């Protein structure tokens, strides 16, 4: 809690009081729907609506002050005009909550695929080392065992800083967060003092937002530029980079901090060798600056070897002993909705996965192929209001790597589901596919085709428990739908 005058006492931005008033600020937000008594409401001009239009709602809910970019005349509340309210929000949130990231060990993970997976691997490792964690990412925000729903993978600054303060109060040791390219480009993570930045990989996604791969890469590079330029022996900083990624050199180039590389060759500081991949577990040796440990884990596929290397690198520079790291892998059962096998006693497997990019789908289908004794089926759709150019590419991957594809809907959002499928269809070379716009029916059709030894990949929605069609959100859970149908699926040979 601070007075507004205190909050702006050393304000480094140009500003103008449109109505000067001494008020006490209890919290802040840029979403009028979340305003509570004593809040500062920050008006942001968004892509769809303008936050300035919600001042009345914010005041009705208890806002005592607003930050605006426009001419706003009000006598009842304090009004300050600035040039860039989003930038100012990061600064004010940092001050209101007393610079909470200065006392937290902040780990930021960026890259196209693997971010969520790595956050959960790190949670397991730090737990094994008796340290307290917080996670921020696609599935949820989590402080210790307490979970909070989340709208974006990387939320806006006032939400972030409010929760960093809660983490500080809860004596969290490590805050492990996914940092999306949208957040980096929109400046949602300004002012966060990261200690470790991780790059998983960079392949095509989000070209609707970034237009070019170069812009997408520049956005992700900002995390590494933000890692600071000072060398502080009390609090060393590290850039952890997947050396096998085609873009690794430019990420190494932009950071001033020590770089730790990981990969599958001896050229990396931390690498895996003697990799044995099975249908239900994996085993490999990880060499960490000359010292070797054996990892045995239920995580499946080579892409998860990469994810585990990233997590091991972070844990290693965070002073977790290698023996503790190795033992923690025995506790990891997998990550919700990431290559998650549906529990059943069938002779075929159904796997729920969050692959929603060409590269992730390729990884997952290659993994399925490597152990399938029978056919591989893929149920796949693409999200509406998202990168249209990835649609035919994802269909092409499914056509090439599975024996049969069911083209269906993901979250069509505001788009026509059949048009999305038409866009996907352009990538299909073979005729081994069916179109079934209803995702539930597509899942059921795929399962009813399955015979002993077959593998069905249901891709794109992973942990999601909803489907957005024509702007409306309906309950929808790939896992439950698949499991319910499997229990009824008593066909021959099953
Ligand atoms: C394209 C994009 O990045 N959109 C983000 C943007 O929304 P926007 O500009 O459309 O916001 P808006 O609805 O116009 O609202 C403008 C302002 O008015 C406020 N408002 C709005 C309505 C109201 O009733 N009251 C109110 O105060 C809003 O809180 C906001 O401050 O700002 C919002 C607030 O920060 C974000 O929630 C929103 O993310 C939307 C939901 C989204 O879907 N974003 C995706 C693309 C995204 O960011 N994804 C990445 C992960 C991607 C990945 O790695 O795969 C993520 O970090 O989530
Ligand atoms: N290291 C990896 N390389 C390639 N594909 C991966 C990797 N790790 C996971 N995947 C695939 O990508 C999917 C998404 O994984 P995960 O949720 O961990 O990624 P993410 O980066 O958090 O994605 P998002 O951008 O949606 O937040 C998984 O279901 C799997 O199919
Ligand atoms: N973070 C990603 C998730 C995509 C998940 C997929 N199910 C979809 O809805 O497209 C995005 O917002 O683009
Ligand atoms: Mg994620």
Automatic annotation (TrEMBL):
Residues 337-462 form the Mur ligase C-terminal domain. Meso-2,6-diaminopimelate binds at residues 386, 410-413, 460, 464. The modification N6-carboxylysine is found at residue 220. UDP-N-acetyl-alpha-D-muramoyl-L-alanyl-D-glutamate binds at residues 32, 152-154, 180, 188. Its main location: cytoplasm. Its cofactor is Mg(2+). It comes from the Bacteria. GO terms for cellular component: cytoplasm. Catalyzes the addition of meso-diaminopimelic acid to the nucleotide precursor UDP-N-acetylmuramoyl-L-alanyl-D-glutamate (UMAG) in the biosynthesis of bacterial cell-wall peptidoglycan. This is UDP-N-acetylmuramoyl-L-alanyl-D-glutamate--2,6-diaminopimelate ligase. It comes from Streptohalobacillus salinus.
């Amino acid at each position: 809690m601070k007075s507004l005058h205190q909050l702006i006492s050393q304000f480094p931005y140009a500003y103008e009081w449109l109505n000067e008033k001494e008020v006490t600020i209890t919290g802040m937000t840029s979403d009028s729907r979340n305003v509570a008594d004593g809040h500062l409401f920050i008006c942001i001009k968004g892509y769809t609506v303008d936050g300035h239009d919600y001042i009345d709602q914010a005041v009705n809910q208890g806002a005592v002050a607003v930050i605006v970019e426009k001419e706003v005349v009000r006598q009842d509340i304090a009004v300050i005009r600035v040039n860039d309210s989003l930038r100012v929000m990061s600064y004010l949130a940092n001050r209101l909550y007393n610079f909470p990231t200065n006392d937290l060990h902040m780990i930021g993970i960026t890259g196209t695929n693997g971010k969520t997976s790595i956050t959960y691997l790190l949670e397991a490792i730090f737990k094994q080392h008796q340290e307290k964690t917080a996670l921020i990412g696609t599935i949820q925000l989590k402080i210790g065992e307490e979970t909070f729903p989340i709208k974006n993978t990387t939320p806006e600054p006032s939400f972030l800083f409010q929760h960093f303060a809660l983490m500080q109060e809860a004596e969290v040791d490590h805050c492990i967060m996914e940092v999306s390219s949208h957040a980096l480009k929109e400046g949602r993570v300004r002012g966060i003092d990261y200690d470790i930045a991780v790059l998983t990989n960079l392949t095509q996604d989000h070209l609707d937002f970034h237009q070019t791969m170069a812009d997408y890469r520049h956005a992700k590079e900002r995390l590494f530029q933000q890692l600071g330029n000072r060398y502080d022996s009390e609090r060393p900083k590290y850039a952890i980079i997947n050396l096998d990624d085609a873009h690794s050199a430019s990420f190494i180039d932009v950071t001033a901090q020590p770089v730790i590389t990981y990969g599958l060759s001896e050229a990396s500081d931390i690498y895996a060798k003697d990799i044995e991949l099975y249908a239900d577990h994996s085993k490999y040796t990880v060499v960490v600056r000359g010292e070797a440990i054996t990892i045995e884990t239920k995580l499946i596929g080579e892409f998860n070897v990469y994810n585990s290397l990233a997590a091991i690198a972070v844990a290693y520079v965070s002073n977790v002993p290698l023996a503790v790291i190795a033992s923690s892998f025995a506790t990891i059962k997998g990550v919700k909705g990431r290559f998650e096998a549906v529990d059943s006693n069938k002779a075929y497997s159904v796997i729920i996965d969050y692959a929603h990019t060409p590269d992730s789908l390729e990884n997952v289908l290659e993994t399925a192929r490597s152990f399938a004794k029978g056919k591989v089926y893929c149920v796949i759709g693409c999200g509406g209001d998202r990168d249209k150019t990835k649609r035919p590419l994802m269909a092409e991957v499914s056509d090439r790597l599975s024996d049969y594809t069911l083209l269906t809907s993901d979250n069509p959002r505001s788009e026509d589901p059949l048009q999305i499928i038409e866009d996907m269809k352009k990538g299909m070379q073979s005729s081994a596919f069916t179109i079934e716009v209803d995702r539930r029916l597509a899942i059921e059709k795929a399962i009813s085709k399955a015979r002993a030894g077959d593998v069905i990949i249901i891709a794109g929605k992973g942990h999601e428990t909803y489907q957005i069609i024509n702007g409306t959100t309906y309950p929808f859970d790939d896992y439950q739908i698949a499991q319910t149908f499997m229990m009824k699926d008593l066909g021959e040979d099953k």
